[in-house]
Amino acid sequence: MMTAEAVHQAIDEVFSDLEGLDVLLSGLSDAEILDGVEKLALAQSRLTTAQAKLLGAYDGRDLHELDQAKSPSVAIAHRTGQPLTRCRKRIKQARKLTRCFPRLAVALAKGEMNWDQAELWFDMADDVFLCDLLQEHEEALLACVWDSTLRLMKEQLAQWRGLVAPEQEDELVDRRLNKVGARRYQDYEGNAHLEQVLDPVRAALQNSVIDVVRERLFAQDWAEAAEKYGEAHAGSNLRRTNEERLAEAVHLLIMAGAGSGDAFTFGPPVRALVKVLVDDQTLVDETARQLGISRPDRSITDLKKRVCSLENGTSIAPSEAYQLAVLGQVMRIVLDGKNILTNVGKPKRFFKGALREAILARDRNIGCDVPSCIEPLSRCEIDHVEEFSRGGPTEHWNGSPKCKRHNLAKQNGRFRSIRDAGGRVRTYRLDGSEIT
Fold first, then answer.
1. How far apart are alpha carbons 209 and 163 in whole angstroms?
2. CA 264 to chain centre
3. Handedness of CA 65, 67, 68, 71 (dihedral sign)
4. 43, 165, 226, 283: least buried by Cβ within 10 Å?
């Protein structure tokens, strides 16, 4: 067991080296810097975990009373100079970690999970009922999600919540609907502002219409700029910004809804479209629940096979997916046990239609397949892993999402991609090193 003096000495040794950090960095290779960034992020997460455990001990022993403070958060804010709201959040998280989730604390201490992932648990545990369920399923749930990315873990926890507590999930939907609202106001220059809060489904429906109109406005601006400045310089000479096109799209839609003028002279009427990804078992289970049919409890060990989200990755409740499935159209996409698609189309130059939708559904948790990219799936194109120009076929196994920037960079030979035997797309620099 380390003494307090040993802990202080270890901390002092870490920070004493910071003064010579600039000299140290100048002698490091690119690979060593990349490795250092990754290790430092892990160390920072483990340090936050250690801080939470210390705060948990501080809170458990009521040490704030030694400072005659009203609460632990007030005492910590006084001692550290940090904002009171941040200290309250840290104390609240420390209580959950030390009192409710001992196995999660072990995973954090070992570096198997990071603090951002743990905060997903803490946020869900704000609900007393869900907190009890999390404690009950903690070990099994950790075994399912410990190696998931932050985005995938968020979706898996949402699937777990819908699986073990469907009534709570329905209450969450109701709370989201109760938060829907909008407000209008004018600034001092007389400009009108419109702020809106929508639930995920209605937001997706609205955005699908707005995006179509905005794309038409972009095409107009591009055609005007290309005619005046040429195709090569059109992009830097567009008449309107993205924000201006968005405002114009909203205005045109409102005018069209009021039946005013010729709002759609530049294109046909727009149809609202929302795409939902839901696995067949979740849909069957929810259908049975809606019809009052009893079904056996499903194991949480198959969370990685479950999905219930919008195309942009936003998780929705199974009850919302059920309602949309009843009202809309269903396209079946079949994956094998390794999440690899069956053949869904004939070879062609572009990934379109059912083939494109199937690839997007398969890679819903990836976004752009370049590991360092954060662009969501909704902003990605389907790229040929093996270049079409080099004989790469337009098949499901050779398609993968890439944002426009990285798709163009790959075409220009700045890096290369390979799909390994396990079906994962790996990205390599020109020197042969992998981007991880």
1. 32
2. 34
3. negative
4. 43
